[in-house]
Structures are given as C-alpha cells and as structure tokens.
Amino acid sequence: xxxxxxxxxxxxxxxxxxxxxxxxxxxxxxxxxxxxxxxxxxxxxxxxxxxxxxxxxxxxxxxxxxxxxxxxxxxxxxxxxxxxxxxxxxxxxxxxxxxxxxxxxxxxxxxxxxxxxxxxxxxxxxxxxxxxxxxxxxxxxxxxxxxxxxxxxxxxxxxxxxxxxxxxxxxxxxxxxxxxxxxxxxxxxxxxxxxxxxxxxxxxxxxxxxxxxxxxxxxxxxxxxxxxxxxxxxxxxxxxxxxxxxxxxxxxxxxxxxxxxxxxxxxxxxxxxxxxxxxxxxxxxxxxxxxxxxxxxxxxxxxxxxxxxxxxxxxxxxxxxxxxxxxxxxxxxxxxxxxxxxxxxxxxxxxxxxxxxxxxxxxxxxxxxxxxxxxxxxxxxxxxxxxxxxxxxxx
Length: 395
Description:
Blueprint: E1 27-32, H1 36-46, E2 51-57, H2 63-70, H3 83-87, E3 96-99, H4 107-115, E4 119-123, H5 130-143, E5 147-150, H6 157-168, E6 174-182, H7 205-208, H8 210-220, E7 226-234, H9 244-249, H10 254-257, E8 263-270, E9 274-281, E10 292-296, E11 299-303, E12 317-323, E13 326-332, H11 343-357, H12 365-384, E14 388-389
Parallel strand pairs: 1-2, 1-3, 3-4, 4-5, 6-9
Antiparallel strand pairs: 6-10, 7-8, 7-14, 8-9, 10-11, 11-12, 12-13
Helix pairs in contact: 1-11, 4-5, 5-12, 6-8, 8-12
C-alpha cells in the first residue's frame, strides 16, 4: 500500500518567506554626485516602496536636474551648488544620502553629512587614502549614524558561500591567499577622464576593482588586520597613446591625462600568520592574472576568475581535501540567485532596512578600513620601493 505524502511536512518545499516592507514612513534620500554610477543607485532606490528621492547635487551646473529628468524622477530639488548647500537645507528633512562622486570627493561630503546627522551610503572605494578613511570614521563615531560602504558583490550568494566554507573549518588553518583579477583591455574611459586623473580619481585599478578582490577574501576570513605591505604599481598602458582602446574611441590624448595605476601587485602579511598575494589590472597582456586560491592546513579552495569583475565568481568553485586518507576534489556549483533582486538593489535595500530597523551598517567601515589600509599601503610602498609597516591609529 502506498504511503500518503504528508503535505504539512513537505510544505517547506514550495514556501517562500514573504518580505513585507513598511511603507507608512518613507525614507527621504538625496544624491550627492549625479554621474555614471549614480544611475545604478537611482534605479535601485526607485524600486524601494518606502523611499522618496527628494534632492540631488552635483558640482557641474545643471547635471543633477538633467540626471533626474533622464530617469523620470519628479519633484526633486536640484538647485544646489554643492553638497554643503544641499545638506544645509533643513527643509529637506533628510534621512540619508547616497554619495556617488568621484573618488577624491568621497571623504568631504561623507563627513559633512554625518555631522549633519544623516545616514550615508558611500560608493566604493571607501576613500583614496587611509587618513581620509579615518577622518570619515571619526565623524561616523561622533554622529552615531549608519555609514555603509558600497561593496555589493559580498551580497552575492556565491560570495556568501566562500565565507561559509571558510567558517565551516573545512579548510583548517588558512596560511596563504592568492587573489586579484583584471581586464586584458579595460581602462574605464567611456565617460571621459574622471577615472584616470589624479585630481578626480586619486587611485586607478587598485581602488576601482582591487578593493572588490580584497573584500572577497578578507570578508571570508574575518578581516584580519594587515601588518606589512610590499607593493608595486605601474601605468604602462594608460600612458601609451597607442593603447588600443584610446585609438578605438578616438582619444589618444587621454594618455597625457593618465595619472593613476593600471596595474598593481602586493605581498601583504596579515594577523594570524596569513600571507596575501594580490594583483589587479585594468590592462595587461593576459586574459587573467589567475584564479583566487585559499590554502589551509586541511583543504584548499579554488575560485575561478572572471574575465572582467562582475560581482561574482567565474564558475564552479573546487574544494581540494582528503576523505578517509584519499585526496579528492569537491565541486561547489554556481548558486543561482532566485530572489529577483540585483546586487545593487540588495545593497540599497539592506541600507534602508538598517536605517528603519535601527540596525548596523550592512558593510561596516570598521572592516573596509583594513581594505583601505592595504590599498594605501600598496601605493605608499610602491612609491618608496620597499616594504612598509601598516599603522592604523585608534579611532
């Protein structure tokens, strides 16, 4: 006789927890910086039923107004000459700002917003220098407000799996990590020179995509403190007027404007006896500088590289370990995200939830401070031509 299936016991197979968002109180949000990356932010904020975009400012006159018109956001005040004028406007009753400026303008508006008692979502990289990051964190501490840094890739399910694997102990004691990534030809100039001049960017591939590669592994292992850095950086491609992408877009003069790194590498010593071998590139004569690998005393994890950073891993991961004394490999398949939310939307939603629920920052500055310290250390070490000690003052 067939045994009847217990519908109650199997109900979980088809059930999905419904997320209910309280729309009785809407968060009043303003934009500081209305350039390229702000487009991803505005599309994500527009999807939140409990958010009202009320203002925007950009240093370029008329840019903020044109930006919101492009995305069909109505009733937004944009007649501000800069972030200070916007944040000084008490009639806005702001809850939060999202800062989408170029790198060199991350710290100043973040500090001003926090001092005004406004929550801050700050695009990556955190800042250009370690000193700037510390100044922002001091303002954060004094304000008691949320400061979350824009590292949405860690919200990807495959990134979460990397951390789960490490936390499970299956790798044992971790002692060596190789990570990085890059593009064969990918200096970001489609929108002009914002990414490549020192005045606006300050750092190149190192901060643009290098910060993501660092976060992928540092977040997985609990963000140990960096102790020393031996760094290298170069700009052979960016300063070459014959660089193929400059030729394609008809701007060989960009070579003279290029003042940042297009390649960087480093050997970093972390607390806990862990060695971090890092490399990142906007341009190189190679398809990839290699997969990310995490070596432990019980197992090793290989994370396939991506052709260009896209916020996730490049394919199924592989765990190398022993079972009953025999060497074996376990394939960890790619996890398909069925939430229906993109990573940018998840970043924005988690920030809004933290504000409304009195929670903590989804990507806390206390972690990304170490990320920034490594980037800062690589730049300083490269300029000095020797290994340096990483010194992070108390905040």
